[in-house]
Amino acid sequence: MAEEAQVYYGTGRRKNAIAKVWVKPGTGEFKVNDKEAKSLFDRVIHQIYIFGPLKATDMEGKLDVTCSTIGGGLTGQAGAIRLGLARALVTMDETNRKALRDGGHLTRDPRMKERKKYGQKRARKRFQFSKR
């Protein structure tokens, strides 16, 4: 009976997006919601974001990454995957923490959409003022 490969988990959040990331030793497959990551995130900046933690730790092509994302848009989901993947890599090997911290991959981006205020159209926009 073959031994199961150890699977490591990390959760990431950005804006309204949440990503659950599982990492295990493998051939370098990267799936997001059962789709290939490069086809789902076709913008180069998003690809730099999601593959950043793997490049920082020299793990490209050595790990299989599976992600499940909900909420937000593509940019928020890419940021959430980045944080979740970085956290999973730290769980896998604590020596990865310095490289990921130096690259800024372990920092949670606190920027969120500002709430709408009453008596206004949106968070900051006011209704038109008429003096007369």
Quick structural summary:
The protein is an alpha+beta fold and 132 residues long.
- Percent strand equals 15-25%
**Could you give the distance between the termini?**
84 Å
CATH topology: Ribosomal Protein S5, domain 2
Strand order of the largest sheet: 1-2-5-3-4
Write the element-wise H/E pattern from the N-terminal end onward: EEEEHHEHH
Helix content: 25-40%
The figure for the number of domains is: 1
Low-confidence stretches: none
Taking the sheet with the most strands, its summary is: 5 strands, mixed
Q: Give me the number of helical elements.
A: 4
Radius of gyration: 19 Å
The CATH architecture category equals 2-Layer Sandwich
Structural class by helix and strand composition? alpha+beta
The overall pLDDT average reads 92
Number of strands: 5
Shape: elongated
Mind telling me the CATH class?
A: Alpha Beta
Oligomer: single chain
3D architecture notes:
- Helix content is 32%, strand content 22%.
- By secondary structure, the chain is an alpha+beta fold.
- The protein has one domain (8-102): 2-Layer Sandwich (Ribosomal Protein S5, domain 2).
- It has a five-stranded mixed sheet.
- Helix 2 packs parallel to helix 3.
List the helices and strands and how they pair.
Elements: E1 8-14, E2 17-25, E3 30-32, E4 35-36, H1 37-40, H2 44-56, E5 63-70, H3 74-92, H4 97-102
Parallel strand pairs: 3-5
Antiparallel strand pairs: 1-2, 2-5, 3-4
Helix pairs in contact: 2-3
